[in-house]
Design a protein that fits this description.
Blueprint lengths: L18 E3 L6 H13 L22 H13 L3 H9 L3 E7 L6 E9 L7 E6 L10 H10 L8 E6 L18 H15 L5 E5 L2 H12 L3 E6 L17 H16 L2 H8 L1 H8 L3 H15 L9 E2 L5 E2 L1 H17 L34 E6 L9 H6 L3 E6 L7 H4 L1 H17 L1
Parallel strand pairs: 4-5, 4-6, 6-7, 7-10, 10-11
Antiparallel strand pairs: 1-2, 2-3, 3-5, 8-9
Helix pairs in contact: 4-14, 5-6, 10-11
Keywords: Hydrolase
Family: Belongs to the peptidase S33 family.
Organism: Podospora pseudocomata
């Protein structure tokens, strides 16, 4: 039985046989070893590249930020507090097939199931270097707004993707990609949880999985994304772009030219990268921390602390970064999380085998887009419309790549409004 506080996907209060309650509880010995590794990990001296005189991160992460983040992880950060936050929501694991032959892996997911018989199932899909942690603020807001399970208008499901967090990695027998992840997600939603139809919400690689689901799976009725890089339509008139779109394309150019070397590494040499990053929590902190600092909107987190140079930084964002890095480290999953990048880049002269444009989501399926100005590749509406039955579009003033984490109130409002549009049409 589920807790009497919340419902179940079937409305009976009973879990399907394949589903079991789950509690996050990392062994204390592993936490102690992590602390030892952190204390023994050196940080190199200042050099031009890690301490640019202009205070920028043009050549990578700044040394002084890493020094402070290391200190905070060692002296102030509490993984047990993160565990408590995760475990404050209903957690489950389920054995889910990864292919038509029935081979299975265990998938962990958060599941807040409404007692409302008309509740709309929504599955939230994270990306890299994200995790289920980025949905906790959003889920907290919705739980606070709807404390009565009979009034919650959604079933909220957020799985750790295969190879991430508390879910198993894919088998080692072949290359797995986004279409395989979509198969797993649909199997979880329909085959395991028994839901008749569902909406999917995602950013980053979660948005690509969402498009595969909307394109290929009948029970996925609608897609709400906050990231949708697609090419312009043929003969597109660039003189029609708004100033906001022009700024967005400039940011996309920055990302492709100056911010995407990590992705090419993940696409072309994931084995080497995974081995290197799995050897040191401090190395992992530097690798992932840089992405959060570059990809979040500075307006999303108050710059409330000062580094020795006088540079301001956000302690809240630093804490979120450390929590995310700790999850990857303590679950030992950084080396199994890179597989999506082989589909995002042309390698050895080959075209990418999977892209958003290859999975249009057209009528009768419905698509919603929430556009954030500090996304790494903000895309004009006209481009997205070519590959989508776009029934909902919202441009936000603040927010970046981790929109669910940065702007949970905005995401919650957007989700509710999108569902209303779906119910009206």
């Amino acid at each position: 039985m589920l807790s009497s506080t919340w419902g179940s996907p079937s409305g009976t209060g009973q879990l399907p046989e394949e589903v079991a309650p789950y509690t996050v509880n990392i062994d204390q010995g592993q936490l102690d070893r992590t602390q030892t590794l952190l204390k023994l990990s050196p940080i190199p001296e200042e050099c031009y590249e890690n301490s640019l005189p202009d205070g920028s991160r043009k050549l990578g992460l700044r040394r002084e930020w890493l020094v402070e983040a290391k200190r905070v992880w060692e002296e102030e950060f509490s993984w047990r507090a993160v565990e408590s936050q995760i475990n404050s929501f209903p957690n489950f694991t389920a054995s889910v097939p990864v292919n038509e032959q029935g081979e299975q892996i265990n998938v962990q997911f958060l599941g807040i199931f409404s007692q409302n018989p008309n509740a709309v199932p929504v599955v939230f899909l994270h990306g890299w270097p994200g995790s289920i942690l980025e949905f906790l603020p959003l889920f907290s807001l919705l739980r606070e707004k709807y404390p009565d399970p009979a009034r919650l208008p959604f079933h909220l499901i957020a799985p750790s993707l295969p190879g991430f967090g508390f879910s198993d990695q894919f088998p080692n027998d072949r290359n797995y990609g986004m279409e395989d992840v979509a198969f797993v997600v649909d199997s979880l939603m329909v085959g395991t949880l028994g839901l008749k139809n569902y909406v999917v919400q995602g950013g980053d690689i979660g948005s690509r999985i969402a498009r595969v689901l909307g394109n290929r799976y009948e029970q996925c009725s609608a897609v709400l994304v906050n990231y949708s890089p697609v090419p312009p339509p043929e003969s597109f008139d660039f003189t029609t772009l708004s100033e906001k779109d022009k700024r967005g394309l400039e940011r996309g150019d920055w990302f492709r030219n100056d911010g995407s070397a990590y992705a090419m590494m993940a696409a072309s040499r994931p084995g080497t990268l995974g081995l290197a990053l799995s050897a040191s929590p401090l190395a992992l902190l530097a690798w992932i921390g840089e992405k959060y600092l570059d990809w979040t909107d500075p307006l999303s987190f108050t710059q409330d602390q000062t580094l020795p140079s006088g540079a301001r930084y956000s302690r809240k964002l630093m804490n979120e970064i450390i929590a995310s890095v700790a999850l990857y480290w303590l679950t030992g999953k950084i080396h199994t999380s890179f597989y999506s990048y082989r589909e995002a880049f042309a390698l050895n002269g080959r075209a990418p085998p999977s892209s958003n444009a290859q999975f249009p989501v057209m009528a009768p399926k419905k698509v919603g887009m929430m556009w954030f100005p500090y996304e790494v590749i903000p895309t004009p509406r006209a481009w997205i419309e070519k590959y989508s039955n776009l029934v909902f579009w919202r441009e936000e003033e603040v927010g970046g790549h981790f929109a669910q984490l940065e702007q949970p109130e905005v995401l919650a409002k957007g989700l509710e409004d999108f569902i209303k549009v779906l119910q009206e049409k």
